[in-house]
Specification:
Layout: H1 11-24, E1 36-37, E2 44-45, E3 69-72, E4 78-81, E5 96-103, E6 110-113, E7 119-121, E8 129-138, E9 141-142, E10 149-152, E11 165-170, E12 180-185, E13 198-205, E14 212-217, E15 221-223, E16 231-239, E17 252-255, E18 259-263, E19 271-272, E20 283-290, E21 297-303, E22 315-319, E23 325-329, E24 337-346, E25 352-357, E26 361-363
Parallel strand pairs: 19-26
Antiparallel strand pairs: 1-2, 3-4, 4-7, 5-6, 5-8, 8-9, 8-10, 11-12, 12-15, 13-14, 13-16, 16-17, 18-20, 20-23, 21-22, 21-24, 22-23, 24-25, 24-26
């Protein structure tokens, strides 16, 4: 075979040239397919999928709030309360609220922002009708104004006080049967009622409605000149600079003692030694007269209180031969402190029908 004039290329150069042709192809050949090969492995792998880009959530403005609730507050203020509007697929949560108010029907609005419920709306005219609307917002925007709520502010004062609350009507432990002590608490102050500066008390035999009034008194107040063992209705009302006083309280009924009580010949000294016989006579005496309730027994009692009648620790007394007299030997309290010695008249069933308490007695 004749020799070619073209010099033969080395095998290594031919191989390198074929590799380049296979890699790049000819101008008219299709683009080569790309394979991903894990380093050190002969198998192809899928190309990596780019991470998805998160879409920020859409924020919606709040719903229009419902109409507010209005109540008269202190003076000419209005107390405004409301609830946040509902959240739905096209309305977000409210994060801020604003109020606006105007004399009713005038639409001359005064706006206050950054409010929370309940809100004290001040700077209003006394005795005037006021329109109030609510608006809410968040970072997406602002809602429409709510429907209008209207309320009239309290009239200008002074205002009469509320009715007081009677705490008790009870006979005092002073041994008499002609008195009742009335105690009560001051009434509250609100937008239509002022503070009390004085009080009136009236009393009537129960159910009769024939009232006797005393004015300018303070709690506690003692009604005197009553009849023994008699139920009495009592009412209290408060006064101040208002032209008219407040309303009368609810009726509370108390009953006077049915017996009178006094100390007897043996009277306990104001200083005693604990756990020893009552000085100076080893005991004490009392007299208990029916007025008009019959007296069937009597008792003594030590107590740390001079106002609450004891019902336990009673020391029974016996008739001592004196007119209406009762007496008993007994000891001073076992502990050192300040005590009061009670003397009790008792009727049928051991019910207390009269009471007398001494002044403070020091026990050492």
């Amino acid at each position: 075979m004749p020799k070619s004039d073209t010099p033969r290329q080395p095998a290594q150069q031919i191989s390198r040239h074929m590799t380049a042709v296979h890699a790049l192809g000819q101008p008219s050949s299709p683009a080569p397919q790309t394979r991903w090969v894990r380093p050190g492995h002969g198998q192809a792998a899928e190309p990596p999928v780019p991470a998805a880009i998160a879409t920020p959530p859409t924020l919606f403005i709040p719903n229009t709030p419902g109409a507010v609730s209005l109540a008269q507050g202190t003076g000419s203020h209005l107390t405004v309360t409301w609830t946040a509007p509902a959240i739905d697929g096209s309305h977000g949560a409210a994060t801020a609220f604003a109020l606006r108010s105007s004399p009713s029907g005038a639409a001359t609005w005064t706006v206050v922002s950054g409010v929370t419920s309940p809100y004290d709306l001040s700077g209003l005219t006394a005795g005037a009708a006021i329109d109030v609307q609510l608006q809410c917002s968040n970072t997406a925007g602002t809602s429409a104004w709510s429907a209008t709520s209207t309320r009239t502010t309290a009239a200008a004062g002074p205002f009469a006080p509320n009715a007081p609350a009677i705490a008790s009507v009870a006979p005092p432990p002073d041994g008499t049967n002609t008195k009742l002590t009335v105690t009560w608490s001051a009434p509250g102050v609100d937008g239509t009622h002022g503070a009390a500066t004085g009080y009136n008390v009236r009393s009537s035999p129960t159910g009769a409605g024939t009232w006797t009034v005393v004015t300018g008194v303070a709690s506690p107040y003692t009604l005197a000149g009553l009849t023994g063992a008699t139920a009495v209705d009592v009412e209290v009302r408060a006064t101040n600079a208002a032209a008219s006083p407040g309303a009368w309280s609810a009726v509370t009924t108390g009953t006077t003692w049915g017996a009178t009580v006094a100390q007897g010949a043996w009277i306990a000294a104001t200083t005693q030694v604990h756990s020893t016989g009552v000085a100076p006579n080893g005991g004490a005496q009392l007299t208990a007269a029916a007025a008009p309730t019959a007296v069937t027994g009597a008792s003594f009692a030590w107590s740390a209180s001079n106002s609450t009648i004891p019902t336990t620790g009673l020391i029974a007394a016996g008739a001592d031969g004196q007119t209406n007299g009762w007496g008993q030997w007994f000891n001073a309290p076992a502990t050192a402190a300040t005590f009061y010695l009670w003397m009790l008249a008792q009727g049928s069933g051991g019910v207390t029908t009269g009471a007398l308490v001494t002044g403070a007695i020091t026990v050492t």
